[in-house]
Amino acid sequence: MSENKKTALFDVHKRLGARLIPFGGWEMPVEYSGIAKEHTAVRTAAGLFDVSHMGEFVVHGPQALDLIQRVTSNDASKLADGQALYSALPYPEGTVVDDLLVYRYNARHFMLVVNAGNIEKDFGWISSHNRFDATVENTSDRISLLALQGPHSTTILQKLTTCPLDKIGYYHFAQDKVLNAHAVISRTGYTGEDGFELYFDSGHSESIWNALLQAGEPHGLIPAGLGARNTLRLEARLLLYGNDMDETTTLFEAGLAWIVKFDKGEFIGRDTLLRQKLEGVGRKLAGFEMVGRDIAREHYPVFVDGKEAGHVTSGSPSITLKKNIGLAYLPAEHSAIGSRFHVSVRGRLCDAQVVATPFYKRR
Amino acid sequence: MSSPDDLLYTKEHEWIRVSDNIGTVGITLFATKELGEVVYVELPKVGDRFKSGDAFGNVESVKAVSELFIPVTGEVVEVNDDLGNAPEILNEDPYGKGWLIQVRMKDPSETADLMSAEEYGDYTKEEE
Known about the structure:
The complex is a heterodimer.
Chain A: E1 5-6, H1 10-15, E2 19-23, E3 26-31, H2 35-44, E4 46-50, E5 55-60, H3 64-71, E6 83-90, E7 96-106, E8 109-114, H4 119-128, E9 135-138, E10 143-149, H5 153-158, E11 173-178, E12 181-186, E13 195-201, H6 205-216, E14 221-223, H7 226-235, H8 270-279, E15 283-290, E16 301-304, E17 307-318, E18 323-331, E19 340-345, E20 348-354
Helix pairs in contact in A: 2-7
Chain B: E1 8-9, E2 14-19, E3 22-27, H1 29-35, E4 38-42, E5 49-50, E6 55-61, E7 65-69, E8 74-79, H2 82-85, H3 89-92, E9 101-105, H4 117-127
Antiparallel strand pairs in B: 1-2, 2-3, 3-9, 4-6, 5-8, 6-7, 8-9
């Protein structure tokens, strides 16, 4: 086993007393002061996450957009300069290489942001389909990514930049200075809360991290780890690659039809996905609540009418809602809101019910 | 992290306080720090019998579930029902109000295999 990679902020996290765990080939902070406290800070004030393990690819050239349109399922041609979009890299079978964000700087220059554990796989996949006049560069090791999330994010970040943050719409971004570093300031996130993701040269990591924590302290900002990130994203029904979808699940099964655009022209996986759209799928990823106090966890088997019918892909207590929630693949005919089924919790069949998602939506 | 001197400890981070043939069992401060905020505790019923090393329940934190292992053979004579409504007691006072169960021990000599506070301190230092 090769040693896990460390972000530029590794020593800072250790000094802050973070618990560090291996994640996607990286040594990452899972919590600082406690998952529930960090989760609540993001919902009510703000939290700061180091997510520099995420991968960034720069795509440029006259046919940059053509390459992106070919390998992704959403329609990147609809993007304006300074806009971003959630999308996926499908296999020809309609299953998922990875999910990603597509950022458009201009018609010849894009950035793709991919999951840490998939950087090499994705880079190989995209490169192998690059028969266009476009270059793909993996800049992951040079770029740091901080996520400032929560209702007070704008107030806090505005102290470090002259960029008019109120002007940046959801899923849009600006290129401006944060302190004295050139940064991409993106109004995106993985928590279901308002906030920003900041991409910049990793040499500036420590100064920006510290300045944000200092500026945010009076506003309730605290550092937050991957533990809170996971409970936050689950409440917002944001999927986690490797848990909720992967190379064995199709975009339609995962409920990601909204990022599959057939009218954009040819793309990898289009034929299979189009057939699935017409014929329907046999199973669907559904959000559920436990009826009793038992907590569903990933990999727990799911039973419908007494028969094993799938498994939980994500499950945890919902800190905001004070319920136990999760996602599971269920037979399509049994995935409607209100459907009852069982989750096997250490051998005991416990009642669960399909509910509307997202579990949590900010006001 | 210092552990109370009057308790005995297991490698799975349970403690036991022995008084005559009754053992009070809980989990250590080290264990609660590893778990994070406890949200649910699943305990056996009074009258249940276990052999030393058996799983007797579960502790769930936000991020994970951990099995509880009993340090001695015996019968459960009391269960800490307060944990049902207030599982956070386990984080707040793991060696006091956060006790889990009391067992009538079948063979008090079994405790000879357990660690002292000092031995447990060295053991957790290695685990960190």
